[in-house]
Amino acid sequence: xxxxQVDEQAKKPVEQVLQELSASKGGLTSQEAQARLxxxxxxxxxxxxxxxxxxFLSFFWGPIPWMIEAAAVLALVDxxxxxxxxxxxxxxxxxxxxxxxxxxxxxxxxxxxxQLALQARALRDGAFSEIEAENLVPGDVIRMRLGDxxxxxxxxxxxxxxxxxxxxxxxxxxPVTKKNGEEAYSGSSVKQGEMTAVVTxxxxxxxxxxxxxxxxxxxxxxxxxxxxxxxxxFLIFLAIALALLLVxxxxxxxEPWAGLFKFVLILVVASxxxxxxxxxxVTMALGALALSKRKAIVSRLQAIEEMAxxxxxxxxxxxxxxxxxxxxxxxxxxxxxxxxxxILGGALASKEEDKDAIDLAVIxxxxxxxxxxxxxxxxxxxxxxVSKRTEAELASSDGAVVxxxxxxxxxxxxxxxxxxxxxxxxxxVDAFAAKGFRALGVARxxxxxxxxxxxxxxxxxxREDSAETIRKAKEHGIDVKMVTGDDVAIGRxxxxxxxxxxxxxxxxxxxxxxxxxxHLTPGQQEAVEKAEGFARVFPEHKYAIxxxxxxxxxxxxxTGDGVNDAPALKQADAGVAVSxxxxxxxxxxxxxxxxxxxxxxxQAVEEARRIFERMMSYTIYRIAMTIDIMIFVVLAMLxxxxxxxxxxxxxxxxxxxxxPIMTIAYDNTFLDPNPVxxxxxxxLSISSLLGVLAVVETFGMLWxxxxxxxxxxPQLQSMLFLQLVAGGHLMLFVTRTQKAFFRPPYxxxxxxWSIVGTQVFAICLVGFGVLVPKLPxxxxxxxxxxxxxxxxxxxICKIGAYRLVSxxxxxxxxxxxxxxxxxxxxxxxxxxx
Length: 833
Known about the structure:
This protein is α+β, with helices and mostly antiparallel strands.
């Protein structure tokens, strides 16, 4: 249901609402209530339950699981139970990580359920009684008063008025005054007044419940997950194609099945990235630990990668960019001598114990609250929607005096003013409205005439760090869009103060009656992209805005704190629950801030971009090494008819590779000032280039061993083993940066010494002949000199390749922007300059 439909429901006459519900002001009988309960169901949020076993088994289906499962089957067929156990442990570990993610939507729903009122006062069988809120049905008559949480959507029937705080639902920063015939929403709370109402919707059909449904259906597939799947697809195809080619050829040559089968098994297990998801998850987990020390808790690991690529930040206004605390602005004086006299008049017409937000803001504006003690309150008339003002009769040393405050036009008409002063006051009210401020008139009566003291302005001020945070976001290539439930004028004023764009759109006008994100036209999506902010926003609007931006190819972050933000927080690539957020928002978010302010978001973006660089260096390295090992071994066997490596050498190679790979998570990396994204074409281009160069390098070493040193096969295999260990680890220094390997940022001590340690170990194996044939010391030195030379060659080619793809990407960006087309949603190191 769209926002306009909600408004139409609220405008229906009470008699029509009762008639449509087949109800009356006398409530329902117990029998009627039971029948309706069976028809409509309980007043609770219900989600579809899947079998835990089926959810778990679903994580064994997909490209990466297929690869690991194939390796496990090969190990089992070859009766290598140790390899089978290791591969299966990795498979189950990855499945458990995915299984844990499945609980996120359910957690969000459980949190939303916790905000429903547990008890309600319903008129059943002619008398009001306490019943469980989940037993309410449409047509029930309920009574609500100060402090109650409204248990279901309802239309107000009898009573003076109801002041309702629905900020957590609609984003409105001020309590809303409701009167007869208007609708009140489930999950909002009563701040003032007492009224009866007829229930119009329960459970998932309420405004609150529709928000919960959006949370349940929301959720974007991580770009990280997409990228890993693409890498998996590429390496599966490469490994299987080469393995089949090798098996067919060797069988035709008469090679014994048993030995060939075991060798291919070990080669496939060593070559495919069995541990890739685990390595990347560890990298992100360590990043999450670093963020937690900065008061930001990561609830979904993939969000770290998404934070690195966000180019749009959708930020809720109330309580996120602003303090969610009404504050007095600059006053306009008339009869009052100064601002404090005007504020004192407003404070005397307020009642602190009622905890009204406006009254408290006025009282807190007093420089000296002791001034209130000079007056004795004789009578107080609270605000009501009819008179639209408060009034207080007081006694003081100067005699009896009456103060009033309220709607400016009411106070102006009440006061004894000249036409010129009335015109001036009206213009001041219009000026406040243009800025999004709420105006209050204050008057004093001492005798027969009311004297107009002046106008007070009220606004929700920005947080102290919001402007600086937005400035830094722009420096990091992030466009910030305000999304608020408040009016356009308020949003535009706050946006201007914070240095944001002021092209605010009224969401209800923009989207019309429906904000179905699955049926937005291309024109609507483009308009969402161009708009600088949205006002008068309902939950379905926020969700649709985020999804529309994602459909336009953007990676979107969304900040918020209320129930209304939960659907968009979950749908966003990186949902951020700010400090003090509701449980529902925290459960739906991927990043939860535990300290006030938004500055930690920028720190999270910086950390995420460093983590992204680490994952990128590993991915490029892993693909290049797979190409090197698989293509070299297969081509060497086909061309020369011998095994270039033994099975034990391949296992040692795989084990030695794992040690430095795990330290990539600690590496020092370059901080890109712009959003960074995955582009698998570029990843595969760079890694394939380095992989092919590595194959040429290894074949060069094979030629040296055969033709120059005239090694026998065992010594030749040992030399090639050392070549692959040294060349592979030196390639890590090449892949970890786009710049020359000897320029900063330098490798972390963990990465550097892990590589040094594995190289010393490999040299000792070859030098002492442990598990592999022994080589002379000088020949080991030759191998290292040869690899160092090739490291420089690979680095030069890498730098040239990055420049080439960067220039090509810039050309494509220019061409596509001229053609008014969209870039592919993935773009490795996609600089928006």
